[in-house]
Design brief:
Layout: E1 3-9, H1 16-28, E2 33-38, H2 54-65, E3 71-73, H3 76-80, H4 86-96, E4 101-107, H5 108-111, H6 120-126, E5 128-132, H7 139-148, H8 158-164, E6 168-169, E7 178-179, E8 200-205, E9 210-216, E10 228-230, H9 234-253, E11 263-272, E12 276-278, E13 282-293, E14 296-304, E15 310-319, H10 324-334
Parallel strand pairs: 1-2, 1-4, 2-3, 4-5
Antiparallel strand pairs: 6-7, 8-9, 9-13, 10-12, 11-15, 13-14, 14-15
Amino acid sequence: MSRIGIFGGSFDPIHNGHIGVAERAMSEYSLDKVMVIPAKVSPFKLKACPQLDDAMRWRMVVAACAGHPGLEPCDVELKRGGVSYAIDTVAAIREMHPEDELFFILGEDSVKGLPQWKDYDRLRTLCKFVSFPRTRESSTEIRQRIERGEPFDDMVPPAVAEMLRTTRVQHQDGAPPRALADSSISALVPHKPPMILIDDVESFDAEDHSLTAKVTITRDSPFFEDGGVPSWAAIEYMAQTIAALVGKHDRMNDPEARPRPGFLLGTRRLTLDLDCFECGRTYHIQAKEEYSDAGAAAFDCRILDDVGTVLATAIINAYRPENMEDFTDMQRSRD
């Protein structure tokens, strides 16, 4: 018999306090695992929908739980849709684990209102309740800090911080989403339509020398055939993401810098865990500079889907001469 924790919430976004509560529950109640469950619609926030979309909240939960043994992301409420009542979730988990002990984790300030929860009398027969004080971290404060341009990295796991620097926050007043990153691809890569293959910059970290771009596959996407773009295009997506990363660094030093071409020298440790990039789906391309010297560089690249599954990886070696004209003249003189 296993002892399983059930920890739900809007996670808008998930933060260090959430992870701390889940790990404390595991320790104090000797739990084998804690299922971390983002709500589709919280019954306590019916008039305030999450400001981060479902896919982004799910990706953040997955990223936050990574590296924490025993914390298991669970999307049962996102898949079920509608209002995320505890009784429906606990009943579903009870069906999956009929012999196990279930422990429902909640904040101390929610205990008093438990008798008003939907089907409370049945709910308390399906699980035990364990409560903890609210933490100093607040999802609302994190979003406010982002809006004000203030630091927030100390409140969330590093992977979540990176995502928050890239995402678009939905405004309840109907205003368009606000991007947290410059997304002008044409200003960064040395290509012109239709050969600009990536759609948008999602994040850029100058200190970490990394950038994440995204592409949504349509029937108008270059190389589209038979319902998608062939998996070999992963190298092209990675190469343009590298170009965008280098372009962002250039524009930090000179806002008027124009994209400069480079050369892809080779690829190592390529993995492709997909047949094609499917029509209608969005993919996220990450590039991180691992080494750089005199124009030569190596980049660790990967491509993920919307739920964070890694579909392709590669180490790409590239070279960009300081002056392309001088470089080509030198090459001609050698011929």
